[in-house]
Structures
1.
Amino acid sequence: MRATTVNVLEEEFACEVALSASSVFWCELEDVFRERKGSSLLFPGDLSLSPLNFFSENPNGLLVRPSDLDAEEKLRKSFAAIVKPFTETTITGAEVGFRVSRQTPSCLTGSLEMKVQVRVRRTNYEFVFPRDFKLINILPAVPSKFTLFVKNISNPEMFNGAQKTFQQDSGSQRILVLHNTNQPFSSTDTGLWRKSGWIFLGGSKVVINLDGTHPCRKESEFFLFWPTIYFGAGNQNTEIPYFCSPLFENTQLRVRTMPIGCCTEWANPAAGLSNIIGNTIVETVINSSVLRLFGEKSHMTPTRVFGNVFARYILYSTLIFDSDGDGVADFISDPTGTSQKAVFPIPRAMPNEYTNPSVLPRMINTGGFDLFSDGAGTQGVPDSLADVMPAYSAGAPSDYVNHMTKLSTDFLDSCEVPYYNSLYDQMFEWSNSGANRSFPAKQVLGRSGEEYPNLGTKFTLPADQEGNGALWKGNLQKYDPISDAKNLMDGVAFRFANQEDFFADSSVRRLPQGVLLRKPLVVHIDGDLDLSPEVFVAAPVAVVVSGNVRLGRVRRATPAGKLIILSLAGNIEAVGGKIEASLLAPKGTIRLSAPLDLVGTLFVDSLEPSQLSKFGGAIIFDPDSDPTNLDVYNRFFTMVLGPQSALVGKKQ
Amino acid sequence: MNMRNSKHRHWVSCRQGKTRRGLSLVEVLVALFVLGLTILPLFGLYSQSSAVVRIGRHDIEAMNFGSSFISQARKLLPRNVTCTNGDMKLLAIQNGQLRLGPVGVANTIEVPLLDQAIFQTTYSIASFVMSPANDGMLREAKQIVLKISWKESLGKDKSACFTALVIDDSISGH
């Protein structure tokens, strides 16, 4: 009996020492899981070989010893420090074994069994501390490849609400700019889209009016056509670049075409522009879109756009007199001897006139100078437009239609020009040095029938940035992150009845300035969640919320930090501050009470343009969340550990 | 009458049957001696086990106290408990409650009563050095050690140690 009580005391002590050792070991191991590095066994240089990549590997039976961690030396010192106050006590060994109990396409569950061996006097003890785990790749693959994913567009013109004059930097409506890559633009990097965040704007038709303010203006989208020309704030009177046709035969005349976006000047009768493009369609071109898909002039980020997305801009054509062939309009003296700039707008014919030309339009410049009457006799100027465009005068208006002013949306849908993706080609038009510019630009994004438009109905998310393999295949228009086979719901490790319970969890720390999420987590919270004013994220964390989510500032506290918020049925509200997170509200929208500053992904059912135009902001694609980057995707296999269970002890 | 008859019958029967021989004194003494040899060790065993139980009771009381103390202390945050200057005597335990740090933070533990006339109890709280994580997340840890000593009824000194490590792995200026 005496020996028994003595042994019980000793075993209790040995157990406490083992528990202390296990705490230190768990701590180091949790850091390895959180940081996804620090162990060549668990996270080798090539992460695709990680045993935690359960899509291709199976960690069942895997043993992790202190020697498998970079922190081995620290661990041994800690073990020594634990037993330092005691005599005849040593920690003789420790290891963690993986036992897998269940596997689904999205999740692996099982337990980790940590064994700690302790020697007290002459007796060896071994204690086992089991702990449940869930292993899941928390990166929602499809949404994570997109800067912006909007499932439904209610009105094709819904974004076209920004109204500005030609020389206005910004109007009363704010704009939301999508920055799809952090790489600086290079006109030769035609494959930029592969590493960029993509855009999906639903299955319905949507028209994005380009911003036609002067290229030096802040929000101007002239860069879509002239990405390599810099326009500073001080050169607002600089002439806008243009394309030129060859000289018409036996003349000094050529057509100069200038792609221009939308602004209120098109409706300005004094400028005469409304007549040039046709009064009936003026209303459609005075506003530009509050949503900017390819970045801004200081950060140009062309990418791949999915959906039935059109770009609306004007191809403003003028006939110019160019006697020296330099592509610049010359001056002609009028009958009074006044020099007139020989630039003559070519009015847009209505589509019903394409096959039935009525009269030859007059070629009159802004000073009222008529080229063919006032300029008659000038060398290189024929008698009439009929000499320049014989087909038109003969009743077959193909040459006139080719050269006249028109809208991008005038082109037939079977042609790639009206679609937004053609602007990608336009930006890389000079990718082959020495090649002449052409319109439409040669296709570099894809082939006709594939990308112009790409409706996303036969979408493949490649496994790498070379386009190999497939992480997901299907119809983007029907994609739902909740019912996706690899969805977050399957990996939920903890469920909380409300946010208070969540904040009380040991993995969440309330700091004076906000909340710190410090452990890898996949949690489900019933009700709403308010993470404002600030949340610090130090680990990969996925939070599934039944209701609405309110966010202030979301900051990655460490490189391992990554927050994914999925609101199952609610909206996401951003109240201000930089948000570094992926936000998914597949049945809701985003509401703003301050400009949006999001680094990550926004996935919503719909967008409310009134919200965007009130506050605007930016969404910056996070390349560290790009699932087509193998290193990135493999890094998101996340170990979520359960609480430490009751120990199992045994004496050897 | 009956008795008389009975005695009589008994007597008669004695007279009438073969006479039986009684135990000799020696035989009785030997039997008593053998019985004594058997019983005496049993008495000794009883006495000894009583002593062991007395001693074991102290062990159990010490273990109850120590386990309770340590299991509760293990749940505290390291920043809430104050390091001691070496071993500190665990003196007054008010209403079975003991505070391991400043007032105003969660650091109170409830412990069973322990007879201070029998048990001497000391505890120490010391910083436990843990390096920060690779990404700079700081970690704070403290080691709590509880020592209980007492004197057994046989005069032998006895002691038991209990220990816990409390770790907080997210203290930082992040």
Note: The two ends of chain A are 20 Å apart (CA to CA).
2.
Amino acid sequence: MFEKPLGMRDTLPRLYETKSIARNAIASEMKRWGFQFIETPALEYYETIGSASAILDQQLFKLLDSQGHTLVLRPDMTAPIARVAASKLLNEDLPLRLAYSANVYRAQQREGGRPAEFEQIGVECIGDHTISADGEVIALLMSSLCEAGLESFQISIGHIGFVQTLFQQILGTEERAQALTKFLYEKNYVGYREHVKKLSLSSIDKQRLLDFLKLRGGEEVLQFANDLIENESGREALSQLHQLWEIVGAYGEEEKLKFDLTLISHMSYYTGIVFEVYSQAVGTPIGNGGRYDLLLEKFGKPTGATGFALHLDRLLEALGGLSEETPTTCILFSGERRKEAYELAKSKRGEGEKIVLQDINGVKNIDACTNQYNDIVFLIGKAGRGSEG
Amino acid sequence: MKEMLTIAMPKGRIFEEAVDLLREAGFKLPPEFEDSRKLIIDVEDEQFRFILAKPMDVPTYVEHGVADLGIAGKDVMLEEERDVYELLDLKISPCYLAVAGLPNTKMNDVAPKVASKYPNVAAAYFREQGEQVEIIKLNGSIELAPIIGLSDRIVDIVSTGKTLVENGLVEYERIADITSRLIVNPVSYRTKDERISEIVDKLTDVIHGVRS
């Protein structure tokens, strides 16, 4: 066998077909919501996209161009789209609705079989700071998943601003807040609790930090959260979540939503509402997103934005199995009846059927060839003497 | 009808203590549970499915989501660095990770070598100490390595220290304290949150009430 680089995969016809059905269903829905698809290059400068993308440095594929500049294979799509939007598209100060489906690249540290190149399909709504935009994006996410055929899923919603302001208020300095946040990133709640116990804080404040870990569930969570927070920006974050609940409710979809204020993302550019989508059939989130109000500023246009990305491979895993093959007919012909075969193929293709035209002299094993197709038409020998069926 | 939960349990040292803890927390596990040689045990009353795995593999099952929950030693968590939630310190099977070797010896000046079942932990520890060492991965009987000259030091778990003494080895440095942890798959943690919270609450009561 010829080997491929670590983490790289081929997509064979059946899987390709399944993938493109899901992709088309989602892309059509995004287009119906008025999002416009764009493409950006796979290679970007390390200094701009590499650092803006918030993917760990050791996960980036880096290379040098012929002038010696360091390049990266894009590790996500949000940063490149922010670059394009800031430099080319955001002229009128109007909200911009962009969509993409593209491969992104992240080198995997362990277990070589994990894909290092995978497709994301997603949207970015740029230049709208309202919670309506966050609501729209989440509603579109739900609707896209339904179009793709995924019925059962859950979206958990958190708020980076809430976590930051709660930790800063209790702990005083950003440094101390970050030390505690690290335990959340690492999903290490044992370490979090031990760290809190060791801090020199009043027992009330310690309890607030411990109770924070329990802020998960339905709408009632916002009330509990309100009891923990004592400052304006924290209340503002909660009021945003409350608005979001109502907005998504207006789309009629709130039963698939849950709040989880402990949710924080590895993508450090998120600033407000963040969310992840889960299917019980897959052990990792199938998509995620959130608000990033400071990223565009890095590209010279200070404006807010929000969006989501779906991990297409994981979505396929959640959908389970390959799509049904659409029937294909093969017309096996010999030279004498070529014209007849071409005409038959043309008319059947015109009706939307999938037709393979195969010269019988090109096939060594006729049985194997006929077994491969749902239907077979023989146009062999002189006209009128061939069999059909 | 409660949702089925799959729990990955480590075979061996931790298993019995973990089963005792679950019973203390009020979960009805059948009496023949411990003696079973099956790899999968369903407990219908509690809607639990237990899978019995090698301790080092428990976080792997949980990360991939084929088990919702698992019980794993902190040593395994440090070695494997899996993307799972570490929810509770169960405070069972206490031991620690240590550096050991033959008494009154120093590391080889030319080519210092360390043998371990925990190559990642060992490598990270010596890197932090600023020492360049070669890590040799072994799968068991680690104490052999310094005795027959494969390595200068070993990194292994120590619970009573008896094994070290019996093999004529001494402890040099202590790396980290170890107990068993309740770990959870990130998706299960969100999609099966009610049942998981219930289990966490019950276990928390037992850990705090009886053991500390």
Note: The first strand of chain B starts at residue 5 and ends at 10.
